[in-house]
Specification:
It contains 3 helices and 14 strands. The protein has 353 residues and is mainly beta. The N terminus is likely disordered.
């Protein structure tokens, strides 16, 4: 999802590995009896942090990453090899290009597949996360925009209490305004804040369960870009916060008291990326990011280990057509944590008017 920086998208390195707001759900969703203090897992179980992460990363966090990827992608071409031939020397702002082209519309589709293989914690989840957005250049180096995101995910919880497998699904949406400031040719800053709603459902042999949730999230990103001939080098530091508050859950249509829960995730990211301009509009790249979950709530049960740090590798290619004011790309990301696998794909396209 790129934005007004009329530059080929490239900073996907920090944009897929961590997604966001599919927050975990109260235990009673899973349709059995027992304590209701373990989201999302079967009542009486310990927490499954891998599933919590998958659900969080697949929605709100993913939306924030998509927005900042869109912004920094456009900013990344300021000072690049195309600045004279296609952008124009004086036109190097965030919406670089024809002065009359101040509106940018973009769309993105993200897919995340995550699996936790640790003993007693086995879960899997697949999440689709399409996002659309538009922004307007209010100054040569400043844009304001808004995005709308939708998520649709499902998966399995294995070895749940009393059942071999419990099926779950989660759907939701969010709205997020954002702002981006191109400080100079190398540095740019962007931030977003959003709200939304979700609905978590389970289907187990014990009966159906469900719960509604309210979402809130926000984040800020500082990016640095440097060109050396046709080589492009990028760096980014990010802070993101996601929260999802669940109401009391329902099991077999009956509301279960004291089953509401609030899921939170604070995350820090540092990443670097290198790409090479091939000409003809093409820019392949590769990157690596370090992710640290500084705060996760609910807390993991005593005796359960959860790796709060991860490495995210990215490869991708972007395309930019100055003639048609269209740019976009595809990125594949792989996140490495102890006992979990997380693979994601991000497609994006941008149009300037």
């Amino acid at each position: 999802m790129s934005k007004h920086f009329k530059h080929l998208a490239i900073y996907a390195t920090l944009s897929v590995a961590s997604g966001a707001a599919f927050a975990s759900a109260p235990a009673s969703y899973l349709g059995s009896t027992g304590s209701y203090t373990c989201p999302p897992c079967a009542p009486g179980e310990t927490a499954r942090p891998g599933l919590n992460q998958a659900l969080l990363q697949g929605t709100t966090v993913q939306t924030m990453l998509t927005i900042t990827n869109s912004i920094s992608s456009r900013a990344s071409f300021v000072g690049g090899p195309m600045r004279l031939s296609s952008l124009g020397e004086p036109r190097t702002g965030m919406a670089a290009g024809d002065a009359s082209s101040k509106l940018n519309v973009w769309g993105s589709y993200g897919f995340i597949s995550r699996e936790d293989t640790k003993a007693g914690q086995q879960t899997d989840a697949d999440i689709d996360n399409p996002v659309i957005g538009a922004d307007y250049q209010i100054a040569p180096n400043l844009v304001l925009g808004v995005s709308g995101a939708f998520d649709d995910g499902d998966g399995n919880i294995f070895n749940a209490v009393g059942f071999a497998k419990t099926r779950f699904e989660n759907k939701g949406y969010s709205i997020a305004p954002y702002v981006a400031w191109q400080i100079n040719q190398n540095w740019s800053l962007d931030a977003a804040i959003g709200w939304g709603e979700g609905k978590f459902k389970t289907n187990s042999p014990g009966g159906p369960g469900s719960a509604d949730s309210d979402r809130m999230f926000g984040g800020a990103n500082l990016s640095y870009t440097r060109w050396m001939d046709n080589w492009q080098f990028l760096g980014k530091g990010s802070y993101m916060y996601a929260e999802e508050e669940y109401e009391n859950s329902k099991f077999n249509g009956v509301t279960v008291a004291n089953t509401g829960v609030t899921n939170k995730l604070s995350q820090l990211r540092l990443g670097a990326q290198a790409g090479y301009w091939l000409g003809g509009g093409w820019l392949p790249y590769a990157g690596l990011a370090f992710v640290s979950d500084s705060d996760v709530s609910p807390k993991v049960a005593p005796g359960i280990k959860w790796d709060k740090q991860a490495w995210v590798g990215t490869v991708g290619i972007n395309y930019f057509s100055a003639k048609n004011d269209i740019y976009g790309g595809i990125a594949i990301n792989d996140e490495s944590r102890n006992g979990t696998t997380n693979t994601s794909v991000l497609l994006n396209i941008n149009f300037r008017f």
